[in-house]
Amino acid sequence: MVRIVSLMTAAAVVISASPVAAHARLVSATPASGAIVSAPGAVSLTFSERFAAPFSSVEVKDGQGRAVTLRQEVSEDGKTLSGSFARPLTAGVYEVRWAIAAADGHRMTGSHSFTVR
Ligand SMILES: [Cu+2]
Fold first, then answer.
1. What are the residues whose beta carbons fall under 8 Å from the beta carbon of 115, sequence distance 6 or more?
2. How far apart are the CA of 69 and the centre of ligand 1, in A?
3. How many A from CA of 22 to the centre of ligand 1?
């Protein structure tokens, strides 16, 4: 997996984190949990707060548990983690697993699955 992360972004997160920063939570996922979609080009996860990119990751596994090759990216605002697939996904069920380190230092993980028709 190629990880594209910015140390400058991480530094900015640390500098801008206030002592009363709220906990991050997952706001939306595309494809959403339980969604049935036609070959998506990427998965994306948007959080309520910025997260530390070097300590955050997303992975996708197919129905046989094999990791899908993807290119990880973090949005300009530091709140969306996405993975672009190297090849179109074939039909089947896929599991998305993510882990982030929020700006307040708390680590969070989650997973959900979607189906490609
Ligand atoms: Cu927290």
1. 35, 36, 37, 92, 93, 94
2. 30
3. 6
- pLDDT tens track for 62-105: 999 999 999 999 999 999 999 999 999 999 999 999 999 998 88
The length of the chain is 117
The pTM of the whole model exceeds 0.90:
no
21 C-alpha to ligand 1 centroid (Å): 7
CA of 107 to the centre of ligand 1 (A): 8
Q: Which residue has the tokens 């998305």?
A: 96
**Residue-range domains of the chain with CATH:** 22-116 (2.60.40.1220)
AA letter at 65: G
CA of 96 to the centre of ligand 1 (A): 22
Contact 67, 85 (CB under 8 A): no
pLDDT of residue 31: 98
